[in-house]
Design goal:
With about 300 residues, the chain is of the alpha+beta class. It has helices at about 5-10, 85-110, 135-150, 225-250, 255-290; strands at about 5, 15-25, 30-35, 35, 50, 55, 60-65, 65-70, 80-85, 115-120, 125-130, 155-160, 180-185, 190-195, 210-215, 220-225. Strand 7 (about 60-65) and strand 8 (about 65-70) form a beta hairpin.
Length: about 300
């Protein structure tokens, strides 16, 4: 069985190993490696990308306890050098660790529990067992979470036997058949069963930004971004506000006020336009009446 380097060292970027099995598929080949740092999709976390002997890895999945790597062509040799797409891996580590922290502090702060977790290329969200969150609650939990990040607590991972789970202060008791369960613990904050990859300390999250909420079948879907995603989002928002500031020739602090003023002016202009249209229609009707020949009337409208 493949040795899973992503558990023993989630920060590994390159390594040398041996291809021990190949399978022919309709869309390429599935390779089994002696050691792999490629994380297979699971637990709400997408799979890693990268390359094996320079050949792009398109997907990684787990089946019957084995990890399979999907490629278009086979490597020329069985001894290969592998490389992780580190940007993608570290992004997933930041978002997943951020979700653990956010979910734990939502319980501590408002007794709000996470139902599910979604990690995509663009959006990250959790579904919560409440119909809504107020603006004040969102601001408060965002501050609580980022204060916790600044404490830079350690995150440790370890395995326990299934019968030992009752000895841990788990956020949620998992319904698993496995005899050995992997635990991810944020020191003094959270203990959860999890098979994903995580950062070593919560300070590596940088920051968490809550972006929006949506109603989801009586629950609330909370969207957020961690680390480099949050920074990229801020940079994009700053560029948009800067462009609006230039358009309105005002400071960014006054952009909203200028937009509100523009909306008021637009409504007034629309009102005046409707009044002029009505006046014009009344005038046209009068003109048509004056041109009537007996009971017959005609007029040609342009366009």
């Amino acid at each position: 069985m493949t040795e899973r380097l992503y558990y023993s060292n989630p920060y590994i970027k390159t390594w040398e190993t041996e291809v021990i099995e190949t399978r022919s598929l309709s869309n390429g080949y599935a390779l089994t490696l002696k050691q792999t740092a490629f994380y297979p999709e699971g637990g709400g976390q997408p799979s890693d990308y990268g390359n094996i002997a320079g050949i792009d890895v398109k997907d990684v999945y787990e089946e019957n306890g084995e990890v399979y790597h999907i490629v278009n062509t086979l490597p020329a040799q069985t001894n290969v050098t592998c490389e992780i797409n580190w940007h993608r891996r570290f992004d997933h580590m930041q978002q997943h660790s951020g979700q653990h922290l956010l979910s734990a502090l939502l319980i501590d702060t408002y007794d709000i529990h996470t139902i599910s977790f979604h990690l995509g290329n663009e959006a990250v969200s959790i579904d919560l067992n409440v119909p809504q969150l107020s603006h004040e609650q969102l601001l408060h939990i965002e501050k609580v979470v980022n204060d916790a990040i600044h404490s830079n607590r350690h995150i440790k991972t370890y395995e326990v036997k299934k019968e030992e789970l009752h000895t841990l202060a788990l956020r949620k008791v998992p319904d698993l058949e496995d005899e050995v369960v992997r635990i991810v613990e944020i020191e003094g904050i959270d203990v959860s069963a999890c098979c994903g990859t995580h950062v070593k300390q919560i300070g590596e999250l940088g920051l968490i930004k809550l972006t929006k909420t949506e109603k989801q079948r009586g629950n609330t879907r909370l969207f957020f971004k961690c680390g480099m995603r949050a920074l990229a989002d801020y940079q994009q928002s700053q560029e948009i506000v800067a462009e609006l500031s230039n358009k309105f020739s005002t400071s960014r602090e006054l952009v909203v006020e200028r937009i509100k003023k523009l909306e008021t002016e637009q409504k007034e202009l629309q009102k005046q336009l409707e009044e002029l249209k009505n006046e014009n229609a009344a005038y046209l009707a009068s003109e048509l009446e004056s041109k009537k020949e007996g009971s017959f009337l005609y007029h040609h409208f342009e366009n």
